[in-house]
Every structure is written in C-alpha cells, then in structure tokens.
Design a protein that fits this description.
The complex is a heterodimer of chains A (110) and B (114). By secondary structure, chain A is mainly beta. Chain A contains no helices and eleven strands. In chain A, a hairpin with a 4-residue loop joins strand 7 and strand 8. Chain A is globular, with a radius of gyration of 13 Å. Chain B has 114 residues and is mainly β. In chain B, strands 2, 4, 5, 6, 9, 10 and 11 form a seven-stranded mixed sheet that branches. A four-stranded antiparallel sheet of chain B has the order 1-3-8-7, with no helix packed on it. The radius of gyration of chain B is 13 Å and the shape is globular. Chain B has no helices and eleven strands. Classes of the chains: A mainly beta (110), B mainly beta (114). Chains A and B meet through strand 4, strand 5, strand 9 and strand 10 of A and strand 4, strand 5, strand 9 and strand 10 of B.
Amino acid sequence: GIQVEQSPPDLILQEGANSTLRCNFSDSVNNLQWFHQNPWGQLINLFYIPSGTKQNGRLSATTVATERYSLLYISSSQTTDSGVYFCAALRGAAGNKLTFGGGTRVLVKP
Amino acid sequence: EPEVTQTPSHQVTQMGQEVILRCVPISNHLYFYWYRQILGQKVEFLVSFYNNEISEKSEIFDDQFSVERPDGSNFTLKIRSTKLEDSAMYFCASSERQFSDTQYFGPGTRLTVL
C-alpha cells in the first residue's frame, strides 16, 4: 500500500509565527487530505488537495503530485492552531481507504 | 454545511461485552467508512461499505467486527466481544464518490474497554 510520512513530528511556535508542515507519499494519489485534530480528538477537514494550491484564511496547502509531496502553511499562528495535523492519501488502484501519516504535533505558545 | 454525526460520543464497556457504534453519514453520500485511532497513534482504516456490501476491509477488521446499514440513514459498527485493545477513538466517514473525493469525518466515538 501507499506510505505516508510527515515532518517534523513536533513543532513549537510562538504566536504570530509562520510554519510549514510537510507530507511525503510513496505513490501517485487520487486523494490527499489535510486534517487538524483538536484537543477533543475531532478530525477537522482542512483541505482536499490531490494537486495544486488552495487557501483558506491563514492556512494554505500545496500538493506537487509529480514529486509526491504536499505542504501545509500556517501563517500568523494562533494558540487555537495547536493540535495534531494529519495528512492522508488515497491511491485508487489500491482501494478507497485513506492512509494517514503519523502527524505533526503543533504547540503555539502565547 | 452537512455533517457526519456519531453516537454516542463516549462509551465505556466491560471486556467481553458487545457494543454498537452509530453513524449518520451525509445524506447524498454513497460510500461509508470506519477508521479507528488508538490513543497517541495514527488513524487506521477498518472497513469501507458501498451498495450494502463491504468493499474493502483491513487486517484489523476480523470476525469480531461487523458493519450494517439497517435503514436509509444509519451506518453501524458492531464489536461482538470487546477486548482491552479495542479501546480507541472510532471515526465514521462518508463520501459521495469512490476515489477522487473528500471523505468527511464524524466527531468520533471514544470507546473505553475495562
């Protein structure tokens, strides 16, 4: 199956700082999603982005499908951005399941 | 925006007991999924369901697990005889199309097996 690796595993930011999270995947994908897991454990959909660039407020994401990676940018971070960020990929030829990476744990300090 | 809902939010059970976790997928979606996350670990796929049949399942999804769509709106996951290692957050998800489409996740059910 497809392998999904995220880096860095942990990130500590001062409020207001910018950051980049990376997701590498081992094969071509039909689906690439980014999630934020909040302190209550809920998985919040951030982006569906198998290719290209999208922006939503202070968050943006870019997937370079030909090079098999995706980046999540957090700008002007706030304490509410704290939590774990997961990327997940799906390769249709291998079934319709999302394979999750190990996550990046982000702590934004005031 | 339509949401996937799950009940209960938290369930505590004794080892060996049966549990049923319930989900209401988004109404026009055709593909349904269960995932789980053991505390501190990554989210893992359990099973996918389409047209009243299991379309794919993982090695985790053994004979102790079953899924059902008992009516036009609910999608359930049953664990027949719970084990301590079944303690996890269970997420239901749904999508309109099979591959190139967003999977929308519910808020999860935290299952604690004592």
